[in-house]
Write a structure and sequence with these properties.
alpha+beta, Four Helix Bundle (Hemerythrin (Met), subunit A), Alpha-Beta Plaits, 5-stranded mixed β-sheet, 8% strand, binds guanosine-5'-triphosphate, Diguanylate_Cyclase
Protein backbone atom coordinates (compact mmCIF):
# COMPACT_ATOMS: atom_id res chain seq x y z
CA UNK A 1 0.00 0.00 0.00
CA UNK A 2 2.79 2.38 1.00
CA UNK A 3 4.83 1.51 -2.11
CA UNK A 4 1.83 2.11 -4.32
CA UNK A 5 1.27 5.44 -2.63
CA UNK A 6 4.92 6.42 -3.24
CA UNK A 7 4.64 5.53 -6.92
CA UNK A 8 1.77 7.98 -7.37
CA UNK A 9 2.62 11.65 -8.21
CA UNK A 10 1.24 12.83 -4.86
CA UNK A 11 3.24 10.12 -3.07
CA UNK A 12 6.42 11.14 -4.90
CA UNK A 13 5.76 14.76 -4.01
CA UNK A 14 5.20 13.83 -0.37
CA UNK A 15 8.45 11.81 -0.24
CA UNK A 16 10.45 14.66 -1.86
CA UNK A 17 8.90 17.04 0.64
CA UNK A 18 9.70 14.68 3.51
CA UNK A 19 13.35 14.31 2.33
CA UNK A 20 13.69 18.09 2.02
CA UNK A 21 12.18 18.50 5.43
CA UNK A 22 14.62 16.00 6.95
CA UNK A 23 17.61 17.75 5.32
CA UNK A 24 16.41 21.17 6.45
CA UNK A 25 15.74 19.90 9.95
CA UNK A 26 19.28 18.42 10.10
CA UNK A 27 20.87 21.70 8.93
CA UNK A 28 18.72 23.77 11.26
CA UNK A 29 19.37 21.34 14.12
CA UNK A 30 23.16 21.60 13.79
CA UNK A 31 22.92 25.38 13.46
CA UNK A 32 20.74 25.61 16.55
CA UNK A 33 23.18 23.38 18.44
CA UNK A 34 26.26 25.50 17.64
CA UNK A 35 24.30 28.73 18.19
CA UNK A 36 23.17 27.44 21.59
CA UNK A 37 26.80 26.75 22.50
CA UNK A 38 27.82 30.28 21.49
CA UNK A 39 24.87 31.94 23.13
CA UNK A 40 25.26 30.08 26.40
CA UNK A 41 28.95 31.12 26.87
CA UNK A 42 29.37 33.23 30.03
CA UNK A 43 32.10 35.91 29.89
CA UNK A 44 31.36 37.46 33.30
CA UNK A 45 34.30 35.78 35.10
CA UNK A 46 36.68 36.81 32.35
CA UNK A 47 35.50 40.42 32.48
CA UNK A 48 35.81 40.56 36.27
CA UNK A 49 39.33 39.05 36.01
CA UNK A 50 40.31 41.75 33.50
CA UNK A 51 38.84 44.52 35.65
CA UNK A 52 40.73 43.20 38.73
CA UNK A 53 43.97 43.04 36.71
CA UNK A 54 43.42 46.58 35.48
CA UNK A 55 43.00 47.75 39.05
CA UNK A 56 46.29 46.12 40.10
CA UNK A 57 48.36 48.27 37.70
CA UNK A 58 47.66 51.67 39.41
CA UNK A 59 48.15 49.97 42.79
CA UNK A 60 51.65 48.84 41.69
CA UNK A 61 52.34 52.32 40.33
CA UNK A 62 51.39 53.93 43.69
CA UNK A 63 53.51 51.40 45.57
CA UNK A 64 56.51 52.24 43.32
CA UNK A 65 55.95 55.98 43.88
CA UNK A 66 55.92 55.38 47.63
CA UNK A 67 58.99 53.11 47.36
CA UNK A 68 60.95 55.77 45.51
CA UNK A 69 59.99 58.40 48.06
CA UNK A 70 60.64 56.23 51.17
CA UNK A 71 62.71 53.24 50.04
CA UNK A 72 62.21 50.97 53.05
CA UNK A 73 62.44 47.15 52.83
CA UNK A 74 58.79 46.97 53.86
CA UNK A 75 57.79 49.21 50.94
CA UNK A 76 59.85 47.14 48.49
CA UNK A 77 58.16 43.97 49.77
CA UNK A 78 54.91 45.70 49.07
CA UNK A 79 56.06 46.43 45.47
CA UNK A 80 57.06 42.77 45.11
CA UNK A 81 53.61 41.71 46.29
CA UNK A 82 51.85 43.85 43.63
CA UNK A 83 54.13 42.50 40.90
CA UNK A 84 53.20 38.92 41.93
CA UNK A 85 49.55 39.94 42.04
CA UNK A 86 49.74 41.35 38.49
CA UNK A 87 51.31 38.10 37.35
CA UNK A 88 48.60 36.11 39.03
CA UNK A 89 45.89 38.21 37.36
CA UNK A 90 47.57 37.69 34.01
CA UNK A 91 47.55 33.90 34.49
CA UNK A 92 43.93 33.96 35.66
CA UNK A 93 42.93 35.80 32.51
CA UNK A 94 44.86 33.33 30.35
CA UNK A 95 43.17 30.29 31.87
CA UNK A 96 39.77 32.04 31.74
CA UNK A 97 40.25 32.62 27.99
CA UNK A 98 41.12 28.94 27.54
CA UNK A 99 37.73 28.02 28.98
CA UNK A 100 35.92 29.97 26.21
CA UNK A 101 36.55 28.02 23.05
CA UNK A 102 34.72 30.56 20.86
CA UNK A 103 36.99 33.35 22.13
CA UNK A 104 40.32 31.53 21.73
CA UNK A 105 40.52 32.01 17.96
CA UNK A 106 39.56 35.70 18.24
CA UNK A 107 42.36 36.49 20.73
CA UNK A 108 44.99 34.16 19.34
CA UNK A 109 47.02 37.16 18.14
CA UNK A 110 47.48 38.24 21.81
CA UNK A 111 49.25 34.99 22.83
CA UNK A 112 52.76 36.40 22.31
CA UNK A 113 51.87 39.49 24.33
CA UNK A 114 50.75 37.26 27.21
CA UNK A 115 54.00 35.25 27.22
CA UNK A 116 56.12 38.38 26.89
CA UNK A 117 54.29 40.15 29.69
CA UNK A 118 54.58 37.06 31.88
CA UNK A 119 58.38 36.87 31.50
CA UNK A 120 58.73 40.62 31.94
CA UNK A 121 56.76 40.43 35.20
CA UNK A 122 58.99 37.54 36.38
CA UNK A 123 62.04 39.71 35.60
CA UNK A 124 60.46 42.56 37.49
CA UNK A 125 59.94 40.23 40.45
CA UNK A 126 63.68 39.40 40.49
CA UNK A 127 64.55 43.08 40.20
CA UNK A 128 62.25 43.93 43.13
CA UNK A 129 63.95 41.23 45.25
CA UNK A 130 67.38 42.73 44.39
CA UNK A 131 66.10 46.19 45.25
CA UNK A 132 65.40 44.96 48.77
CA UNK A 133 69.19 44.87 49.34
CA UNK A 134 69.96 47.88 47.13
CA UNK A 135 67.29 50.61 47.48
CA UNK A 136 68.97 52.69 44.72
CA UNK A 137 67.58 50.11 42.24
CA UNK A 138 64.02 51.26 42.99
CA UNK A 139 64.35 54.06 40.47
CA UNK A 140 65.13 51.87 37.40
CA UNK A 141 62.59 49.37 38.76
CA UNK A 142 59.93 52.04 38.58
CA UNK A 143 60.82 52.88 34.93
CA UNK A 144 60.60 49.24 33.84
CA UNK A 145 57.37 48.80 35.83
CA UNK A 146 55.82 51.83 34.13
CA UNK A 147 56.72 50.40 30.77
CA UNK A 148 55.21 47.00 31.67
CA UNK A 149 52.12 48.78 33.04
CA UNK A 150 51.58 50.41 29.62
CA UNK A 151 51.83 47.03 27.87
CA UNK A 152 49.40 45.54 30.41
CA UNK A 153 46.84 48.32 29.87
CA UNK A 154 47.03 47.84 26.12
CA UNK A 155 46.58 44.06 26.45
CA UNK A 156 43.62 44.34 28.80
CA UNK A 157 41.91 47.00 26.73
CA UNK A 158 42.38 44.87 23.66
CA UNK A 159 40.87 41.89 25.49
CA UNK A 160 37.88 43.91 26.68
CA UNK A 161 37.33 45.09 23.11
CA UNK A 162 37.29 41.48 21.87
CA UNK A 163 34.88 40.38 24.61
CA UNK A 164 32.60 43.32 23.82
CA UNK A 165 32.60 42.36 20.12
CA UNK A 166 31.82 38.75 20.93
CA UNK A 167 28.96 39.83 23.24
CA UNK A 168 27.43 41.83 20.41
CA UNK A 169 27.78 38.72 18.26
CA UNK A 170 26.18 36.68 21.04
CA UNK A 171 23.11 38.92 21.05
CA UNK A 172 22.87 38.59 17.28
CA UNK A 173 23.17 34.81 17.57
CA UNK A 174 20.37 34.81 20.16
CA UNK A 175 18.09 36.67 17.76
CA UNK A 176 18.90 34.30 14.92
CA UNK A 177 18.50 31.36 17.26
CA UNK A 178 14.98 32.36 18.18
CA UNK A 179 14.16 32.75 14.47
CA UNK A 180 15.70 29.33 13.76
CA UNK A 181 13.71 27.73 16.55
CA UNK A 182 10.49 29.27 15.20
CA UNK A 183 11.26 28.04 11.68
CA UNK A 184 12.11 24.60 13.05
CA UNK A 185 8.84 24.55 14.92
CA UNK A 186 6.93 25.60 11.80
CA UNK A 187 8.69 22.87 9.81
CA UNK A 188 7.80 20.28 12.40
CA UNK A 189 4.17 21.39 12.45
CA UNK A 190 4.00 21.30 8.65
CA UNK A 191 5.65 17.87 8.67
CA UNK A 192 3.06 16.64 11.14
CA UNK A 193 0.25 18.10 9.01
CA UNK A 194 1.71 16.51 5.85
CA UNK A 195 1.97 13.19 7.63
CA UNK A 196 -1.63 13.44 8.83
CA UNK A 197 -2.82 14.34 5.33
CA UNK A 198 -0.88 11.41 3.86
CA UNK A 199 -2.41 9.04 6.41
CA UNK A 200 -5.91 10.40 5.73
CA UNK A 201 -5.29 10.08 1.99
CA UNK A 202 -4.09 6.48 2.38
CA UNK A 203 -7.01 5.67 4.62
CA UNK A 204 -9.48 7.07 2.08
CA UNK A 205 -7.76 5.23 -0.77
CA UNK A 206 -8.00 2.00 1.20
CA UNK A 207 -11.71 2.59 1.88
CA UNK A 208 -12.36 3.39 -1.78
CA UNK A 209 -10.49 0.27 -2.85
CA UNK A 210 -12.35 -1.87 -0.35
CA UNK A 211 -15.60 -0.35 -1.55
CA UNK A 212 -14.68 -1.08 -5.17
CA UNK A 213 -13.71 -4.63 -4.30
CA UNK A 214 -16.93 -5.40 -2.48
CA UNK A 215 -19.60 -3.46 -4.31
CA UNK A 216 -21.24 -3.37 -7.68
CA UNK A 217 -20.47 -0.18 -9.57
CA UNK A 218 -23.90 0.29 -11.21
CA UNK A 219 -26.19 -0.27 -8.25
CA UNK A 220 -23.97 0.24 -5.22
CA UNK A 221 -25.13 -3.12 -3.84
CA UNK A 222 -22.64 -5.72 -2.64
CA UNK A 223 -21.13 -7.89 -5.37
CA UNK A 224 -20.87 -11.66 -5.68
CA UNK A 225 -17.43 -11.76 -3.98
CA UNK A 226 -18.76 -10.15 -0.83
CA UNK A 227 -21.88 -12.30 -0.86
CA UNK A 228 -19.81 -15.50 -1.05
CA UNK A 229 -17.69 -14.37 1.90
CA UNK A 230 -20.69 -13.44 4.02
CA UNK A 231 -22.59 -16.59 3.01
CA UNK A 232 -19.66 -18.85 3.96
CA UNK A 233 -19.50 -17.27 7.40
CA UNK A 234 -23.31 -17.46 7.79
CA UNK A 235 -23.30 -21.15 6.76
CA UNK A 236 -20.65 -21.95 9.38
CA UNK A 237 -22.68 -20.09 12.00
CA UNK A 238 -25.92 -21.85 11.00
CA UNK A 239 -24.14 -25.22 11.15
CA UNK A 240 -22.75 -24.42 14.59
CA UNK A 241 -26.11 -23.19 15.95
CA UNK A 242 -28.15 -25.69 13.97
CA UNK A 243 -30.05 -22.61 12.74
CA UNK A 244 -31.90 -21.77 9.54
CA UNK A 245 -30.31 -19.85 6.70
CA UNK A 246 -32.37 -18.84 3.69
CA UNK A 247 -31.08 -17.77 0.32
CA UNK A 248 -33.23 -15.93 -2.20
CA UNK A 249 -32.46 -15.38 -5.90
CA UNK A 250 -34.38 -12.55 -7.59
CA UNK A 251 -34.41 -12.11 -11.34
CA UNK A 252 -36.13 -9.34 -13.33
CA UNK A 253 -38.57 -10.80 -15.84
CA UNK A 254 -38.02 -10.20 -19.54
CA UNK A 255 -35.33 -7.68 -18.85
CA UNK A 256 -33.93 -8.17 -22.34
CA UNK A 257 -37.14 -6.63 -23.66
CA UNK A 258 -36.61 -3.54 -21.47
CA UNK A 259 -33.15 -3.10 -22.95
CA UNK A 260 -34.33 -3.78 -26.48
CA UNK A 261 -37.35 -1.47 -26.24
CA UNK A 262 -36.07 1.46 -24.18
CA UNK A 263 -32.33 1.17 -24.62
CA UNK A 264 -29.47 0.11 -22.40
CA UNK A 265 -29.28 3.36 -20.33
CA UNK A 266 -32.95 2.95 -19.37
CA UNK A 267 -32.23 -0.69 -18.52
CA UNK A 268 -29.43 0.52 -16.24
CA UNK A 269 -31.77 2.96 -14.55
CA UNK A 270 -34.33 0.20 -14.00
CA UNK A 271 -31.60 -1.89 -12.37
CA UNK A 272 -30.60 1.03 -10.14
CA UNK A 273 -34.15 1.80 -9.01
CA UNK A 274 -35.07 -1.85 -8.37
CA UNK A 275 -31.82 -2.23 -6.36
CA UNK A 276 -32.73 0.80 -4.30
CA UNK A 277 -36.20 -0.54 -3.65
CA UNK A 278 -34.91 -3.99 -2.68
CA UNK A 279 -32.40 -2.44 -0.32
CA UNK A 280 -35.14 -0.35 1.26
CA UNK A 281 -37.40 -3.36 1.70
CA UNK A 282 -34.83 -5.81 3.05
CA UNK A 283 -33.65 -6.06 6.67
CA UNK A 284 -30.27 -4.56 7.56
CA UNK A 285 -29.19 -7.94 8.97
CA UNK A 286 -29.71 -9.55 5.54
CA UNK A 287 -27.15 -9.26 2.76
CA UNK A 288 -28.38 -8.03 -0.59
CA UNK A 289 -26.09 -8.39 -3.61
CA UNK A 290 -26.22 -8.04 -7.36
CA UNK A 291 -24.70 -11.25 -8.66
CA UNK A 292 -25.31 -10.96 -12.39
CA UNK A 293 -26.89 -8.75 -15.06
CA UNK A 294 -30.49 -8.60 -13.71
CA UNK A 295 -30.06 -11.14 -10.96
CA UNK A 296 -29.94 -10.35 -7.24
CA UNK A 297 -29.42 -12.44 -4.16
CA UNK A 298 -30.66 -11.95 -0.62
CA UNK A 299 -29.01 -13.91 2.17
CA UNK A 300 -31.18 -14.18 5.29
CA UNK A 301 -29.68 -15.65 8.43
CA UNK A 302 -32.02 -17.17 11.06
CA UNK A 303 -34.89 -17.29 8.57
CA UNK A 304 -37.08 -20.30 7.83
CA UNK A 305 -38.44 -21.13 4.36
CA UNK A 306 -41.87 -20.00 5.44
CA UNK A 307 -40.60 -16.57 6.49
CA UNK A 308 -38.36 -16.30 3.44
CA UNK A 309 -41.30 -17.02 1.13
CA UNK A 310 -43.31 -14.32 2.88
CA UNK A 311 -40.47 -11.83 2.37
CA UNK A 312 -40.18 -12.97 -1.26
CA UNK A 313 -43.84 -12.37 -1.88
CA UNK A 314 -43.70 -8.93 -0.28
CA UNK A 315 -40.72 -7.92 -2.43
CA UNK A 316 -42.32 -9.30 -5.58
CA UNK A 317 -45.57 -7.39 -4.94
CA UNK A 318 -43.79 -4.13 -4.09
CA UNK A 319 -41.75 -4.28 -7.31
CA UNK A 320 -44.88 -5.04 -9.30
CA UNK A 321 -46.85 -2.08 -7.97
CA UNK A 322 -44.02 0.41 -7.67
CA UNK A 323 -43.83 2.88 -10.54
CA UNK A 324 -40.24 3.72 -11.35
CA UNK A 325 -39.58 7.44 -11.28
CA UNK A 326 -38.41 9.23 -14.40
CA UNK A 327 -38.84 6.14 -16.61
CA UNK A 328 -41.86 5.86 -18.82
CA UNK A 329 -42.34 2.09 -19.11
CA UNK A 330 -45.50 0.54 -20.58
CA UNK A 331 -45.72 -1.79 -17.57
CA UNK A 332 -43.92 -2.03 -14.27
CA UNK A 333 -41.15 -4.62 -14.25
CA UNK A 334 -41.76 -7.82 -12.31
CA UNK A 335 -39.43 -10.28 -10.65
CA UNK A 336 -39.29 -14.03 -10.23
CA UNK A 337 -37.85 -15.43 -7.02
CA UNK A 338 -36.31 -18.73 -6.01
CA UNK A 339 -35.95 -19.53 -2.30
CA UNK A 340 -34.05 -22.21 -0.46
CA UNK A 341 -33.20 -22.84 3.19
CA UNK A 342 -30.71 -24.95 5.05
CA UNK A 343 -31.07 -26.02 8.67
CA UNK A 344 -27.67 -26.65 10.17
CA UNK A 345 -26.22 -29.37 7.96
CA UNK A 346 -23.02 -29.12 6.00
CA UNK A 347 -23.95 -27.53 2.68
CA UNK A 348 -21.55 -25.30 0.80
CA UNK A 349 -22.63 -21.98 -0.65
CA UNK A 350 -22.53 -23.42 -4.17
CA UNK A 351 -24.87 -26.25 -3.16
CA UNK A 352 -27.29 -23.87 -1.45
CA UNK A 353 -27.17 -21.55 -4.44
CA UNK A 354 -28.00 -24.41 -6.83
CA UNK A 355 -31.24 -25.12 -4.92
CA UNK A 356 -32.28 -21.46 -5.04
CA UNK A 357 -31.43 -21.44 -8.75
CA UNK A 358 -33.65 -24.50 -9.33
CA UNK A 359 -36.48 -22.74 -7.50
CA UNK A 360 -35.96 -19.62 -9.62
CA UNK A 361 -36.03 -21.70 -12.78
CA UNK A 362 -39.29 -23.19 -11.55
CA UNK A 363 -40.77 -19.73 -10.92
CA UNK A 364 -39.82 -18.66 -14.43
CA UNK A 365 -41.25 -21.86 -15.88
CA UNK A 366 -44.52 -21.42 -14.01
CA UNK A 367 -45.14 -18.03 -15.62
CA UNK A 368 -42.80 -15.54 -13.82
CA UNK A 369 -43.71 -12.83 -11.28
CA UNK A 370 -43.88 -15.45 -8.55
CA UNK A 371 -41.79 -17.07 -5.82
CA UNK A 372 -40.96 -20.77 -5.59
CA UNK A 373 -38.87 -22.76 -3.14
CA UNK A 374 -36.61 -25.78 -3.38
CA UNK A 375 -35.25 -27.33 -0.23
CA UNK A 376 -32.18 -29.47 0.05
CA UNK A 377 -32.93 -33.05 1.10
CA UNK A 378 -32.64 -33.59 4.86
CA UNK A 379 -29.05 -34.45 5.63
CA UNK A 380 -28.37 -37.92 7.11
CA UNK A 381 -28.17 -38.03 10.90
CA UNK A 382 -24.91 -39.37 12.28
CA UNK A 383 -26.89 -42.11 14.13
CA UNK A 384 -28.76 -44.11 11.49
CA UNK A 385 -30.12 -46.56 14.08
CA UNK A 386 -30.57 -44.58 17.30
CA UNK A 387 -31.31 -47.72 19.33
CA UNK A 388 -27.92 -49.16 18.49
CA UNK A 389 -26.34 -46.15 20.16
CA UNK A 390 -28.86 -45.83 23.03
CA UNK A 391 -26.33 -47.06 25.56
CA UNK A 392 -24.20 -44.02 24.87
CA UNK A 393 -26.96 -41.77 26.12
CA UNK A 394 -27.37 -43.59 29.47
CA UNK A 395 -25.16 -42.13 32.07
CA UNK A 396 -22.92 -44.45 34.02
CA UNK A 397 -23.75 -44.71 37.80
CA UNK A 398 -21.24 -42.82 39.88
CA UNK A 399 -19.30 -44.96 42.30
CA UNK A 400 -19.72 -43.67 45.81
N1 LIG B 1 -29.11 -2.40 -18.99
C1 LIG B 1 -28.41 -3.44 -18.54
N2 LIG B 1 -28.72 -4.66 -19.01
C2 LIG B 1 -28.05 -5.72 -18.57
C3 LIG B 1 -27.03 -5.59 -17.65
N3 LIG B 1 -26.52 -6.83 -17.41
C4 LIG B 1 -27.23 -7.71 -18.16
N4 LIG B 1 -28.16 -7.04 -18.87
C5 LIG B 1 -29.09 -7.56 -19.78
O1 LIG B 1 -30.08 -8.34 -19.12
C6 LIG B 1 -30.67 -9.18 -20.09
C7 LIG B 1 -30.94 -10.51 -19.49
O2 LIG B 1 -31.67 -11.25 -20.44
P1 LIG B 1 -32.06 -12.74 -20.26
O3 LIG B 1 -30.98 -13.47 -19.51
O4 LIG B 1 -32.47 -13.26 -21.58
O5 LIG B 1 -33.27 -12.70 -19.30
P2 LIG B 1 -34.63 -11.93 -19.40
O6 LIG B 1 -34.78 -11.18 -20.66
O7 LIG B 1 -34.79 -11.12 -18.16
O8 LIG B 1 -35.65 -13.11 -19.40
P3 LIG B 1 -36.07 -13.95 -18.16
O9 LIG B 1 -35.01 -13.86 -17.13
O10 LIG B 1 -36.23 -15.33 -18.67
O11 LIG B 1 -37.37 -13.39 -17.70
C8 LIG B 1 -29.72 -9.21 -21.29
O12 LIG B 1 -30.27 -8.49 -22.36
C9 LIG B 1 -28.49 -8.51 -20.78
O13 LIG B 1 -27.86 -7.77 -21.82
C10 LIG B 1 -26.69 -4.28 -17.19
O14 LIG B 1 -25.81 -4.07 -16.38
N5 LIG B 1 -27.42 -3.24 -17.67
Amino acid sequence: MMLRFLRQPSGRLASIFAALLCAMTAVMGSYVYSACQKASADYTTLISDIVLAQQATPQLRTALEEGRRLPSSEQIEYIDYFISLSKQHLNNIKSSIERHRYLISDVEYLNNHFSELNSRLSDLNLKAQKAQQRPELVDPLQRVAMDIGGAQSWLYNQLLEEVRAISVQQRFVMQRLSIAVSVLLALMVSAAITLCLAVIYLHRQRNVMQQLMLTDELTGLYNRRHLVNVASAALTQAQRDNGSLSLMLLDIDHFKQVNDTYGHPTGDEVLRQISKLLRKLSRPSDTLARIGGEEFCLLMPNTTTHDALQVADRLRREIEVNTLSGIDLLANPTISIGVTTCHGGSLTFEQLYSYADKALYQAKALGRNRAESQLPPTEPTPYKNPQAYAHLLISEPIDS
